[in-house]
Amino acid sequence: RAQAIPASTSHPKGLYLLFATEMWERFSYYGMRAVLVLFLTDAMLMDKPFASKFYGGYTSLIYLTPLIGAYISDRYWGNRRSILVGGLLMAAGQFILFASASSYGPVATHAASHWLLYLGLGAMIVGNGFFKPNISSMVGSLYTPGDSRKDAAYTIFYMGINLGSLIGNTITSLIGDTGHANDFRWAFLACGIAMTVGTVVFNWGKSKYLHTPQGQAVGTTPAHSGGINGIYALLPVLLVLVLGVLYLDSAKFPTIAPLLAVAVVGIAYMIFSDKSLSKADIQGVLVIFVVSFFVVFFWAAFEQAPASLTFFAKENMNRTIFGFTLPPSIFQNLNSIFVISGAPIMALLWTALGRRGNEPPSPVKMAIGLLLLAVGYLVMCFGVKDLQPGVKVSMFYLVALYFFHSYGELCLSPIGLSLVNKLAPVKFASLLMGVWFLANAAANYLAGYMSSLYPDPKSTAPAPVLLGYHINNLYDFFMVFVVSATVAAAVLLLISGKLVKIMNAREAEAA
Ligand code: GLN
């Protein structure tokens, strides 16, 4: 039977195990995140700017810990054990949030529920650090280096991500975002169950399905051992973690930038001082760093979804359709819906262009992604231009925004995962996946900060100012993203030729 399917189009069964595991995990992550900011404002009684920054701090740390998880996995645990530990921690975190939200009365009056909130989110931050980089790099490990099916594999994997997000977000919006603050707990409970299922599924199938085409087990052993004494290298990393949690504890901490800078410098030093890497290896790693910088501008704007864009849905948009009023958090699902339906279209498009020899190289695809993101916000700007106070905007604009953002994401995100996997020297595969996620850490922090500038017509405080630019209304607010994404896209396009040249040299050497 295996022979009936040409090897170039069929995929190893292990891919579907990783697909299923990631699907349940993303159910848990996005399902929770979809209602988090509303939980913070409506149940924990935080104001919107504070809740926005809190959200940014949380998701920023979510993307910072993969670095630590990747490091431990590369040197000590291997992918499989890291995924199991991460899965268990994240399930525990969701159940702790369930406990936090169950002590509602209102929650804000209970110190215990606040501590449980921190503890639950902390467990998820650490757990995600073990889980996310390992599952992402394992996808590529199921194939021999240079296998042309890798891009497609990451696209399929990406559909698992979004299927999980779609199911999770739908369930948590319907059972948690009901308008009654004490219902949020049901969302967290559902997420805890989902994460448990994912961990069990992974544990069940791991030995059976996770191997290379040659039949060698994948993810059982660390990618490399030796080198710097592990304990010493771990110290600064642990420090980063502790500072990070402190930061989460107080949204007053000025910026996460110093933490990220320490992390980036540390990794760069570790990799660039490694004598076993060739010149092409090093240049490939440089490309990963450069590309990661540009995607910050993408995610900072994109991750407004559960924050300012959900405030928008709640306060400024008509949510009634066929006499039924939709919960504000449910609109984030449009992203998953467009990604799932769009992924095959994009895969076909790239293949068709590839056959004619004019498939854009990865950095160009990413620049296109940034441009589509800008278009999404531009459409939104039309919707809110000269908006009279109290007038609600049609949901068309938000639907269109998510449409463009999702196609932008498809041009940028799966392509990026695959690019990192291809360019990273094997011994640093997971660590460099951590660098890719570090870009998200910076971006998510910025996203929370940006969302805290969301204009509030009821507020008597002076309009927020960003680098001298006054954000007086929704139009000004959304315009920030139009401009930043367009500029980033233009610069990336300008340097893409150089990046592609390095990538080709790296691939020629690997072949
Ligand atoms: N939606 C994707 C995921 O959850 C990408 C997230 C990201 O890189 N910001 O994996």
Q: Ends: how far apart?
A: 30 Å
Q: List the bound ligands.
A: glutamine
**Are there runs of 5+ residues with pLDDT below 50, and where?**
1-7
SS element count, helices: 15
The rounded Rg comes to: 22 Å
Mean pLDDT: 88
Gross morphology: globular
Order of helices and strands: HHHHHHHHHHEEHHHHEEH
**Major β-sheet, in short?**
2 strands, antiparallel
Strand content: under 5%
Which structural class best describes the helix and strand composition?
mainly alpha
Q: Quaternary arrangement of the chains shown?
A: single chain
Strand order of the largest sheet: 1-2
Membrane topology: Multi-pass membrane protein
Protein name: MFS transporter
Main location: membrane
Subcellular location: Cell membrane; Membrane
